[in-house]
Write a structure and sequence with these properties.
- The complex is a heterodimer of chains A (323) and B (516).
- Chain A is mainly α and 323 residues long.
- Chain A has a domain of 204 residues.
- Chain A has a two-stranded antiparallel ribbon with strand order 1-2.
- In chain A, strand 1 and strand 2 form a beta hairpin.
- In chain A, helix 2 runs parallel beside helix 13 and helix 4 runs antiparallel to helix 5.
- The longest helix of chain A is centred in the C-terminal third of the chain and has 27 residues.
- The two termini of chain A are 25 Å apart.
- Chain B has 516 residues and is an alpha/beta fold.
- Chain B folds into four domains: 171 residues, P-loop containing nucleotide triphosphate hydrolases (Rossmann fold, 3-Layer(aba) Sandwich), CATH 3.40.50.300; 70 residues, no CATH class; 165 residues, P-loop containing nucleotide triphosphate hydrolases (Rossmann fold, 3-Layer(aba) Sandwich); 70 residues, no CATH class.
- Chain B is built from 17 helices and 24 strands.
- In chain B, helix 13 crosses helix 14.
- The chains are: A mainly alpha (323), B alpha/beta (516).
- At the A-B interface, helix 9 and helix 10 of A face helix 10, helix 11, strand 20 and helix 13 of B.
C-alpha cells in the first residue's frame, strides 16, 4: 500500500493545508510591509511583544478550536475568563493566599463552566450557540454579583510573575502558550479523545452508530475548552495585576477569528491547532504593525475585518472551485 | 417502437412520451434505454422493486436529474429541452413526493399560492388568497381552513393541500410517489376517490406504489421496471396479482451469486423476544444461530430497518427482551450493543456510515479503537496494520490509507464501513442494504465476504431489497409486513413469488413465529 496520495508537496498543501498556506503568505506580506515602513517591527523585543499579546487569544483559540472541530461553538469564553480571574484573585486575597490553590481554583472554575456548557449542549440538546450565549451572560453576571462589581487588587508579586515575568528574556505567558500548544496538539492528533472529536464534528450520527458515547465526549470537549479558558483567565489576571469583573469582553470573537483564520471548519470535522496559532499570530501582527504606524484603532478594526475576509475568502473560493 | 399500432408515439393520445432514457451513476446503470408512454387522462401505474429505477425516471421527468445523451421527453406533443424542476412545473408536471414540499409554519392558503402570491397594490391580497384556496380545497372535497397553519394538519390533509397546490399551478400531469404509505385505511379511500375525481376533470396521473392491490384497482395501464429497464407495459385488466409480482421479480439468477458454503451451527447466538416500539414494530421474536445468515424481507417501511436499529439500541422507546447466548442483556445505546458484540452497518451510508473528511485508516479503526490504544493514546503502528489488513482483505481500492473516505467511490466507501465492523470483530453483524448503490464487482466481493464470515462463526442479519440477493445469501428468511413478522421461510422453501406475496401481506407463512 503506497503511502502517498499527492504527487508532490504543493498538491498536498493545496488540498490539506491551503488555509494555513494563505495565512503564511499574508503573514509574510504584512511582515514585509511593516518592516519596510517601521524600524521597530522586525526586532526581537517587538516580536516577543507580539507573542505576549497573542498568548491569551491563542490559548482561548486552542480551546475553541477543539470545540469547533466537534461541530460546537463557545461564546462564553470572554465572560468565563473574567469569572476565572475573579475567583483566582479572590483566593489570592483570602486569608489563605496560596498561588497553587489560586491556579487550581481558576482551572476548576473554567472546567466547571465548561462542564455545564457540555451538559446543556450534549445532554439537554441545546444548540451550542444558544447554550454558550446564555453562559456568556450568566458567567459575566456571576462575576459581577459575587464581587459587587468591585475589582480585586493587591495580588502577590509572585503570582504576577505568571503574567508579566520573564524567563531567560522571554515573557512567561509565551512558555505557557507554547507548552499548551504541544499538549493539546498531541491530544487532538494522537489520542482517542482527539479522534472522536473529529469524528463527532465530521458526522455525529455515524459516530454514534459506531458505538461511541458521543454525549460523554462532547461533554469532555467543553470541559477541555473550559480548562483552556481557565488558563487564559489566570494569565490575564496575572498580567492585569488585578481581578476585573468586566475583563475579557469580546475575547471570544477574537479567539474564534483566530481559529477560523487558521482553517478550522466552522461546521466541524476539520481544523488544527497550528492553524489557530498562526491565525492568532497574524492578528497580533496586524494590530502591532498598525499600532507602530500610529493608525487609529478605529481604522485598525476595519483593516482587521478586511484581512479576515480576504484570508478565509481565498481558501473558501479555492475549495469551491477546485476539480 | 412504432410496432404497437401507433400507440407508443408522440401524438395527441400520449400526453407524455419518454424515449431512450438512460441514467448512469458511478458504478451503476440506474436506467437503461427506457421508453415510457402515458396517455392523456389515464391513471398510469409505475411499478418495480426498490432500485428498479422508478424514482430515477420520475426525477428525470421533473427535471431533478438529466438523462444521458439521446434521451428525449415529449410533453403534450412538444419536445422538452433543458428540463429543470422549474420548467417541468411550468409545463404542468407536478410531483407529490413522499415527503411533502410544504412549509409547516405557513398557512394552508399561503402554501397553495407559494409559487405566485396574488398581489394587490404591492401587497399580498389575503382575501383572494384565502378565498381562492377555499375554492380549490372544496373542489377536491377537502374542508380544511385555509388560514390554518400546515403543521396543525394531519398527513392526509397535508397531502390534499399539496394536491390543491398542484391544481392551482395548472398541473396536467400529477405524479404520486407512494401516496398511501402514510395514510390510514379510511384516508386511502378518500384519496382514491380524489384521484378518480382528478381523472374526471382531465388530469393525468402517474401512480407509483409497491402496493399491488392498489395499483391494480386504480390504474388502467401499468409499466413495470426492473433493473433499470422496462419489462412491460400492460393493460391492468389483463393481469392478476401473481403475474404482476412475477413481472417485478422474475430475473435470471444464473451465477450472479457465489455458492453459499457456510452452514449455520446449532448454538443460538441471539434471541429476540417480543420486541416492540412506539410506532412500527409489534411483538418481534426470532433467534439467530451461530454462523447463520438470517435474511429480513419486506417492503420499504415494513419495519426491517427498525428491527436492526432496535436491537442495536439506536432508537429510544423499545420494549422487549434480547438474549445473548442465553443471557438477557439490556441494550439502550449503540455503545452497549457494541460492548455486547453486535455491530450495525446502517442503511444510509453517507449519513450514518462513515466520517467523510476522515482518512480510510481512521474510519476503519473508529469503532474498534479501544483495541489499539494505550492510556488513551492511539498506537499508530497497530492502527496502520489493522487498516492495511482490511483494505487488503476487502480489496478496498484506495491510493493510500490516508485518503479521505469522501474521495472514494460508493462501493469502496461501503467496504470501508463494512471494514469498520470487521476490524472491531463483533460476533454478530447486522447489515442493512450492504450492496445498495454499488457496482456488480463490489457486490460480488461482499457476497463472498458474508459467506466467509459465517464460516468463521460470525452471525449475520441481512436486509436487502434485492430479493435474488436475499435468496442467494440467506439461510433463513423472515418476512416483514406492517411491523410484524408475517412469515418465516427455510432455505428449502425459498421462492421469490411466495416471499413477495408474504411481504405484500397477501399470504402468510409460519405464522407461529411473529404474532402471538
Amino acid at each position: 500500500m503506497p503511502k502517498k496520495i499527492f504527487k508532490n508537496w504543493w498538491e498536498k498543501i493545496k488540498y490539506n493545508y491551503f488555509q494555513e498556506f494563505i495565512l503564511l503568505v499574508v503573514l509574510l506580506v504584512l511582515g514585509t510591509i511593516f518592516s519596510l515602513l517601521t524600524d521597530t517591527f522586525l526586532t526581537i523585543p517587538n516580536i516577543l511583544n507580539v507573542l505576549l499579546q497573542i498568548s491569551i487569544i491563542a490559548i482561548l483559540g486552542f480551546g475553541v478550536t477543539i470545540i469547533i472541530i466537534s461541530a460546537g461553538i463557545d461564546l462564553s469564553l470572554g465572560s468565563v475568563m473574567a469569572l476565572v480571574g475573579m475567583g483566582t484573585a479572590a483566593i489570592l486575597t483570602s486569608s489563605t493566599p496560596s498561588i497553587f490553590l489560586a491556579i487550581l481554583g481558576g482551572l476548576l472554575i473554567g472546567g466547571i463552566v465548561g462542564f455545564i456548557n457540555g451538559i446543556t449542549v450534549a445532554y439537554i440538546h441545546l444548540p451550542a450557540f444558544i447554550a454558550t450565549l446564555a453562559m456568556m451572560s450568566i458567567a459575566r453576571g456571576v462575576a459581577l454579583v459575587v464581587t459587587n462589581a468591585i475589582p480585586i487588587y493587591n495580588l502577590p508579586e509572585s503570582f504576577l510573575f505568571l503574567g508579566s515575568g520573564f524567563l531567560w528574556g522571554v515573557p512567561t505567558p509565551i512558555y505557557v502558550m507554547i507548552s499548551l500548544y504541544f499538549i493539546l496538539d498531541f491530544i487532538l492528533r494522537k489520542t482517542k479523545f482527539g479522534r472522536y472529536t473529529y469524528a463527532i464534528g465530521g458526522n455525529e450520527e455515524a459516530t454514534r452508530l459506531s458505538g461511541i458515547n458521543i454525549k460523554r465526549y462532547k461533554l469532555l470537549v467543553y470541559v477541555v475548552g473550559g480548562i483552556c479558558t481557565g488558563v487564559a483567565g489566570i494569565l490575564f489576571t496575572a498580567r492585569l495585576g488585578s481581578g476585573q469583573p468586566t475583563a475579557g469582553v469580546g475575547y471570544e470573537l477574537d479567539a474564534i477569528t483566530a481559529a477560523i483564520l487558521g482553517g478550522t471548519n466552522l461546521f466541524g470535522g476539520s481544523g488544527n491547532l497550528i492553524g489557530t496559532l498562526i491565525g492568532a499570530f497574524v492578528m497580533g501582527v496586524i494590530n502591532n504593525g498598525q499600532a507602530l504606524l500610529n493608525i487609529s484603532s478605529y481604522v485598525q478594526n476595519i483593516v482587521r475585518g478586511i484581512i479576515v475576509i480576504l484570508a478565509v475568502g481565498i481558501s473558501t473560493y479555492q475549495y469551491m472551485t477546485r476539480k | 417502437m412504432g410496432k404497437n399500432k401507433g400507440v407508443n408515439r408522440v401524438n395527441d393520445k400520449n400526453i407524455l412520451v419518454m424515449k431512450n432514457i438512460s441514467k448512469k451513476f458511478p458504478g451503476v446503470k440506474a436506467l437503461d434505454n427506457v421508453n415510457f408512454y402515458v396517455r392523456k387522462g389515464e391513471i398510469h401505474g409505475l411499478m418495480g422493486e426498490n432500485g428498479a429505477g422508478k424514482s430515477t425516471l420520475i426525477k428525470i421527468l421533473d427535471g431533478a436529474y438529466t438523462s444521458e445523451k439521446g434521451g428525449e421527453i415529449w410533453f403534450k406533443g412538444k419536445l422538452v429541452q433543458n428540463n429543470s424542476p422549474i420548467l417541468s412545473k411550468k409545463l404542468g408536471i407536478s410531483t407529490i413526493h413522499q415527503e411533502f414540499n410544504l412549509i409547516p409554519e405557513l398557512t394552508v392558503g399561503e402554501n397553495i399560492f407559494l409559487h405566485d402570491f396574488p398581489i394587490r397594490r404591492g401587497l399580498i391580497d389575503w382575501k383572494t388568497l384565502f378565498g381562492e384556496s377555499r375554492k380549490y380545497l372544496k373542489d377536491i372535497g377537502c374542508n380544511v381552513d385555509p388560514a390554518a397553519k400546515v403543521k396543525t394538519l394531519s398527513i392526509a390533509q397535508q397531502q390534499m393541500v399539496e394536491i390543491s397546490s398542484s391544481i392551482n399551478q395548472n398541473a396536467e400531469l400529477i405524479i404520486m410517489d407512494e401516496p398511501t404509505a402514510p395514510l390510514t385505511k379510511l384516508e386511502i379511500d378518500i384519496l382514491f376517490k380524489l384521484i378518480r375525481h382528478l381523472k374526471e376533470i382531465g388530469i393525468t396521473i402517474i401512480y407509483i406504489s409497491h402496493n399491488i392491490k392498489e395499483v391494480l384497482t386504480l390504474a388502467e395501464r401499468i409499466t413495470v421496471l426492473r433493473d433499470g429497464k422496462v419489462v412491460n407495459c400492460i393493460n391492468s385488466k389483463e393481469l392478476n396479482q401473481n403475474q404482476l409480482i412475477e413481472l417485478m421479480v422474475g430475473r435470471s439468477f444464473k451465477n450472479a451469486f457465489p455458492p453459499r458454503k457456510g452452514k449455520p451451527m446449532k448454538e443460538i447466538m441471539l434471541s429476540v423476544r417480543n420486541l416492540s416500539d412506539a410506532h412500527k414494530l409489534k411483538n418481534i421474536s426470532f433467534d439467530l444461530k451461530k454462523g447463520e445468515v438470517l435474511g429480513l424481507a419486506g417492503l420499504v417501511g415494513s419495519g426491517r430497518t427498525e428491527i436492526l436499529r432496535a436491537v442495536y439500541g439506536a432508537d429510544p422507546g423499545i420494549s422487549g427482551e434480547i438474549e445473548l447466548k442465553g443471557k438477557i442483556i439490556n441494550i439502550t445505546s449503540p455503545e452497549e450493543a457494541k460492548k455486547n458484540g453486535i455491530g450495525l452497518l446502517p442503511e444510509n451510508r453517507k449519513k450514518e456510515g462513515f466520517i467523510p473528511l476522515m482518512s480510510v485508516q481512521c474510519n476503519i479503526s473508529l469503532p474498534g479503537i479501544d483495541k489499539i490504544q494505550r492510556f488513551g493514546v492511539v498506537l499508530n503502528k497497530e492502527e496502520t496494520k489493522l487498516a492495511e489488513n482490511f483494505v487488503k482483505k476487502l480489496d478496498i481500492r484506495t491510493p493510500s490509507l490516508e485518503q479521505l473516505v469522501i474521495r472514494l467511490s460508493g462501493g469502496n466507501q461501503q467496504k470501508v464501513v463494512l471494514a469498520k465492523w470487521l476490524a472491531e470483530g463483533t460476533p454478530i453483524i447486522m447489515l442493512d442494504e450492504p450492496t445498495r448503490g454499488i457496482d456488480v464487482g463490489a457486490k460480488y466481493d461482499i457476497y463472498i465476504l458474508i459467506d466467509k464470515l459465517t464460516q468463521e462463526g460470525i452471525s449475520v442479519i441481512l436486509i436487502t431489497s434485492e430479493l435474488p440477493e436475499l435468496l442467494a445469501l440467506s439461510d433463513r428468511i423472515l418476512v416483514m409486513h406492517n411491523g410484524r413478522i408475517n412469515g418465516e421461510f427455510k432455505k428449502e422453501q425459498f421462492k421469490a413469488e411466495d416471499i413477495m406475496a408474504c411481504a405484500f401481506g397477501t399470504i402468510k407463512n409460519g405464522g407461529d413465529m411473529g404474532e402471538s
